[in-house]
Amino acid sequence: MTDAPRWIELEIDPPLATIVLNRPEKLNAWSWESARQISAHADALRFDDRVRAVIVRAEGRAFCAGVDLGMPEDRITGRSPAEKTRNYFERFRWVHERFHVLAALPQPVIMAIHGYCLGAGLEVALMGDIRIAADDAKFALPEPKVGVGIDAGGDLRLATEIGAGWAKLLAFTGRRIDAETALRIGIVQDVVPRDDLLARVRELALEITRNAPLAVQVIKRTINFRAQQGMSEALGFEAASASPLFVSDDMAQGYKAMASKIDPDFEGK
């Protein structure tokens, strides 16, 4: 989509670069186009030796409130349920590839999180190496509340970061947690007052940039290698597992209930 609006901006101020989620009127709601734009910026930074650390932050009241349910171009179509399921599977694999470009940047990536960080927003945040939250941040994986599976690896990365038990509790319930709980269980590494968030994240990023950049990058690769062993296979399994749910009756019921602000009546079909 060459004529798409710029929802993700890139600012370069060596030795730092900042990727900005900039769709505040929609609480930075996520879409396929958002994934394309953020990976394009990450690609631009990959070989930029001026940049030693990357910050990801957001404009407006939220980091990202989740998937934009109102984007018609984001709706997957197909001539049959089987073809539609196949198309979801391929789109999920495409998103995994886009997110990998950001997660695998050689430079450390620090997430500055405030307000809502829900669903796709939490999945984006988990692409970072370090996450700093404002004290107003709220986190959740609400997908089961609308009858769909988690499809971009957020549950898998949570299991790596905080353990399978906590990942299952959050993913099974869709429960929202506050910043202090996120700190206690290990989703974020620090919580700061909202007004101090960007200054504290920048201070941390600059502290990192004062170290030898090649050494920092080797450390990142090594830790990621150990932490993410089996991740590629697991993401492929997740795409295959999640795809059929997007043609289920439960998903249709869940989205209808969300739009009407009522509780869904899921039947498991």
Short note summarizing the structure:
With 269 residues, the protein is of the alpha/beta class. Helix content is 45%, strand content 14%. Helix 2 (81-103) runs antiparallel to helix 9 (231-242) and helix 4 runs antiparallel to helix 5.
List the helices and strands and how they pair.
Layout: E1 8-13, E2 16-21, H1 32-46, E3 53-58, H2 81-103, E4 109-113, E5 116-118, H3 120-125, E6 130-134, E7 138-140, H4 154-162, H5 164-173, E8 177-178, H6 179-185, E9 190-192, H7 197-209, H8 213-227, H9 231-242, H10 249-260
Parallel strand pairs: 2-3, 3-4, 4-6, 5-7, 6-9
Antiparallel strand pairs: 1-2, 7-8
Helix pairs in contact: 1-2, 2-9, 4-5
